[in-house]
Amino acid sequence: MYVAVRVADLLKLPTFKLSHTLAGVRGLIREVEYIDVLEHPDIDVLIKPRVLYLTSGFAFHENEQLQETLIAHMEDIGAAGLVVEPGRYLTLLSSQMIEEANRLQFPIVELPQGAVFANIIREGLEQIFLQQSAILRRSQEIQRQLTQVAFSGANLQKISQTIANLMGNTIIVADQNFSLLSFAFWEKEHKNQKRKAYVGRTLDQYLYNLERTGFIDKIRKTKKADRVEVLFSKQGEQAWVVVPVLVNDEILGYIAVLEDYHRMREEDWGALVQAATVTGMAIYKQVVEEEVARRQRNDFLFHVLEGQLPLGQEVLEQAKSLQISLHTTWSIIQIELVNLEEYRRRHFADSVQEEAASRQRDLAILIDQLTAKQKDLLVACKQEWITVLCPMTVNSHAREQAMQRVEVIKQELQRFAPELEIAVGVSRVCEDYRQLPLAYREAKETLEIGRNLDPLARVYCFWDLGVYQILTKLKDMPELKEYYEAILGRFDQLDTLTRSEFVKTLEAYFIANGNIFKAAQILYLHRNSMTYRLKRIQDLLGVDLDDSEVRFNLQFALKIRKVFP
Fold first, then answer.
1. Predicted local confidence at residue 356, as pLDDT
2. How far apart are CA 44 and CA 476, in angstroms?
3. Residue 164's pLDDT is what?
4. Could you give the percent of the chain with pLDDT greater than 90?
5. The model's pTM
6. Does an H or E element contain 238, and which?
7. 133 DSSP β-pair partners
8. Buried-state track 260-287, b at ≥16 Cβ within 10 A, e below 16
9. Does residue 469 or residue 360 have the better pLDDT?
10. Measured between alpha carbons, how far is 428 from 438 in angstroms, rounded to an integer?
């Protein structure tokens, strides 16, 4: 990597041999683009960024106000430093100037008496111009290599690797939704060293957190490269340079440089803009191909799950063409993103994308997160639902297997998006792909019924439904509806509040096994209030709760009630 000339580099030149640093030692790393003389009191006009100034003190030796403000003013403008020559105008710098320079880490260097400014300027500029020539040669070499890789028809991964090697840093290429397309590490450093950024979840999380900070929205609006420092919990503070890839002034994707080895100079930014041009067509080609493949896979899976395709050899061949294998044992895991809209408003409030595209982006990010480590999952999404086809092994511990996979899925989502609330329904195992529509219905119905039975549980398994396993299969039978109407139909003629009160009263009564005192405690009622409600229910329904057959019918009707839409 080529680096700019810094103040410390110039102090190694022969003309600076006997000089010493008076203040701001930490500022010796400042970059220098030019050397000039500061002898005119009109410093507002003279001082420029990245310039090292030589002075005999003539401009400020009799001006106490200027002495008080000079260092802070030079720091604000971005000057590289101040080199002073003691002599007729200046014998000693004020303590205030020294203190201010140390506070701001602004370098002040003292020359030996008799130093010749012309010699210092000549040697210093020679060093600077030599370095600038090297930078120019590097820029030309970058352009040559990028042009060569562009005309070679290389894929996006090859282009990413070329850019990473040229920049000397980790490179991530993302699509317009800021989802990972490719990444590359600097080969020179990563041959024998542990990587500073990691494949899979960490890279995706980098991108996701950059999105959440609002930084990417800023680039979407300005369409210009920018740098940001982002604090991550495990990786610490990470410096990023992100360049939009533009085609016809529309953002097609992004090149993100993680400055894990070198802080990029402005010249490197120019090279990145060149790289963005080369990367544009490769991104377009890959994005189009991957998006088409994603939609085809998503649509195909839902067509299979919803029973819209004849399940035969033709379906298996279509699955194979989409790189999907249906020849395994599956359990369907239906995930509802409970607070998706609230979550999106909170973290993507400034998004300039259309609502549908924005939603699709967020779901794509979550799906990529799920499959980053669990590559055997088949995942499809629709609205705020994610459907997972989870491969299983055939044994007597199917429920335990399924719940273990659910736990891993929950952990991945919560680690990636901790504020996102989910609810999960898990089907039984199906050993044949032709049972997938049945398993899909089971997962959805399990989630629906489970949330009605226990809204706080969040994970519901078909194996745990008990009698509801049967009721979900029979809920469309008119006889079931007729049975319910005969037992509890009169409840539905009541107002909403009274109906809800009576249903909860009966449920508490049965949970307490007919013990009125315990039932009253469940509902936080007085025993007399509980007795009064039960009498009203018996009068309304014309039943006697002391009759075991009546109690069975009422309990069963209450369960039927929970499976109706």
1. 57
2. 84
3. 87
4. 24
5. 0.53
6. strand 236-247
7. none
8. bbbebeebbbebbbbbbebbbbbbbebb
9. 469
10. 9
DSSP structure string for 137-196: HHHHHHHHHHHHHHHTT--HHHHHHHHHHHHTSEEEEEETT--EEEEE--HHHHTTS--S
Does the pLDDT at position 333 exceed 90? Answer: yes
- Give the phi and the psi of residue 249 in degrees, each rounded to 5: 65, 15
- Work out the angle at residue 31's Cα, subtended by the Cα atoms of residues 27 and 37, and round it to the nearest 5 degrees: 90
Q: Which residue has the tokens 């459907």?
A: 387
Residues 402-427 have a mean pLDDT of 85
pLDDT tens digits, residue range 126-159?
888 887 776 667 667 776 777 777 667 677 888 8
> What is the Cα Rg of the chain in Å?
36
Q: What percent of the chain has pLDDT over 70?
A: 88
Dihedral angle sign, alpha carbons of residues 288, 289, 294, 296: positive
Return the half-sphere exposure (C-beta side, CA atoms, 13 A cut-off) of residue 436.
28
Q: Is 480 exposed, middle or buried (0-12, 13-18, 19+ CB in 10 A)?
A: middle
Q: Is 147 in contact with 275 (CB distance < 8 Å)?
A: no
Q: Reduce the DSSP state of residue 411 to 3 states and report it.
A: helix
347-381 pLDDT tens trace: 654 444 455 556 666 677 777 777 767 888 898 88
Give the C-alpha separation, 250 to 353, whole Å: 12
Q: Which two tokens stand for residue 43?
A: 């410093």
Going by C-alpha positions, the residue among 321, 265, 272, 322 that lies closest to residue 297 is 322
Reading the block at residue 470, the tokens are 């049967």
pLDDT score for 99: 92
Query: What are the CA-CA distances from residue 232 to residues 185, 360, 412 (Å)?
Result: 20, 25, 17
What single letter denotes the amino acid at residue 379?
V
Lowest-confidence range among 161-175, 226-240, 244-258, 478-492?
A: 226-240
Give the C-alpha distances (Å, rounded to integers) separating 519 from 172, 509, 511, 554.
61, 5, 7, 16
Q: How far, rounded to the nearest angstrom, does the alpha carbon of residue 427 sit from its chain's CA centroid?
A: 30
Tell me the CA distances in angstroms from 386 to 340, 406, 548, one per residue in order. Answer: 12, 13, 44
- Long-range CB contacts for residues 308-313, cutoff 8 Å, separation at least 24: 311/433, 311/434
**pLDDT at residue 531, rounded to an integer:** 93
192, 390, 397, 165: which is closest to 261 by C-alpha? 165
Could you write out the DSSP letters of every residue in 274-339? HHHHHHHHHHHHHHHHHHHHHHHHHHHHHHHHTT-S--SHHHHHHHHHTT----SEEEEEEEEETT
